[in-house]
Design a protein that fits this description.
By secondary structure, this protein is an alpha+beta fold. Helices cover about 25% and strands about 20% of the residues. The strands form three sheets. A two-stranded antiparallel sheet has the order 1-2. Strands 3-4 form a two-stranded antiparallel sheet. The structure holds zinc ion.
Amino acid sequence: MTIPVKDAMVRCYNTEPTCRVEREWPQEVLTGKGNWHIKWPSVIVRHATDFVQKQTVDLNHTTLFYREEGKCAYCREYTVNGTKDHVIPTSKGGPNDWTNVVWACKDCNTRKANKMPKGMWKPKVPVFKPTYWELLKNRKKFPLYIQTEDWLPYVEWLDWEGDVIITMKKHLDIGPNVV
Ligand SMILES: [Zn+2]
């Protein structure tokens, strides 16, 4: 998945780097106390070792959306404004982990409230902890937003099924702090 650009920069320049800068913007960026000039990276590559360690999948709003491909576990309607629903309510001892949560539209979540998973409130999808690869397979069905065409060579080998959308075309569109 993604990490904030600030984290990526730290990973490139700390004493044991786990990322490297692959391509750069032409502009220099002023950092730290003002005596350290670097170019702002347009493509950062994570080292393979770092990548392997990160293959567990955190449970959050976004990852849950992709496990279910955005469809409510009860009525099966697609919604981007869904919620995390606890299959066995937390008030009845249900854990807050992958094996007890589903993506639910607001309407179903409200109606289910703290009912147990019986009848219509039994999820119509498997409730499981996905692997990184299972989640990525689903993620690829949705649009991928990349900042610039610089990223296209790195996206090609991903076999992305959804649209690849470039959000920023000109180098000069980039950032503040340009020297
Ligand atoms: Zn629903």
